[in-house]
């Protein structure tokens, strides 16, 4: 669908695009094809699309996947897509945030057909050009709720860079994305590939959700005594872990010890940092996910 077609459909349906819904439609077939290729769909895939809009991605997804569930907030866009009667598509009208949380099951297609569960996951893939206002929120929910095995999503460039950031530039979003998944920026998409043209560029990222939970590599005191240092298999409590991470980032310019000293005790924080080989002056953005996990394990000792 090119820019003129998108404009004329919006006019015909009297769709007033709103910024609050992040309605910038993809008008480039080559970018669409690149996204579809990146999703590496196969005929067994159960796919969730968030914000199908006028169906730029949807029409290709339904041809390649076993089943597509698409959630659209805008009633007019929903009506437009519904009228297309695309085979293989379960269209849901609503806010994906409400549907995903707290009741993911609402997203399940009703009726005879039951979606196959893959290793306890509900969808194989999420493929979406995400509405930018809800990007971080929806990503967090999808990762926390283990909604899919892989997320192939278009996000604002700056958000994509935060998702895949390295030590020194980490944020709560980076820790979260890299704790649950292995994110990778696939390619850039310039604003001119959308209508209306957004002010910022985008990137397509792939997040491969980790199949096993991260563990700490902090050595247990018992194995040290036995002169057999080995990694202690510590099951991380996600909720407590992210409370620690959020507290660590509460004042970005401050050293980690100053953000956390009041909560866990200054001495304990300093000692935990020493034990995992970090200096006292370290800041939250300098820790890798593994260092956060080790720090969490050390603080919990
Ligand atoms: N997939 C289409 C495309 O690539 O051209 C549209 C992408 S547009 C960036 C985002 C879409 O998400 C819009 O259709 C918008 O109406 C929809 N949307 C916005 N907020 C939403 C929400 N909370 N839940 C579901 N859909 C939403």
TrEMBL record:
Record localization: Cytoplasm
GO molecular function ontology, one term from the record: RNA binding
Residues annotated as binding S-adenosyl-L-methionine: 24, 26, 51, 72, 95, 129
Limits of the Ribosomal RNA adenine methylase transferase N-terminal domain: 31-211
E.C. number(s) listed in UniProt: 2.1.1.182
Catalytically driven reaction(s): adenosine(1518)/adenosine(1519) in 16S rRNA + 4 S-adenosyl-L-methionine = N(6)-dimethyladenosine(1518)/N(6)-dimethyladenosine(1519) in 16S rRNA + 4 S-adenosyl-L-homocysteine + 4 H(+)
Catalytic class of the enzyme: transferase
GO CC list: cytosol
Family: Belongs to the class I-like SAM-binding methyltransferase superfamily. rRNA adenine N(6)-methyltransferase family. RsmA subfamily.
Protein's recorded name: Ribosomal RNA small subunit methyltransferase A
Source organism: Candidatus Kuenenbacteria bacterium RIFCSPHIGHO2_02_FULL_39_13
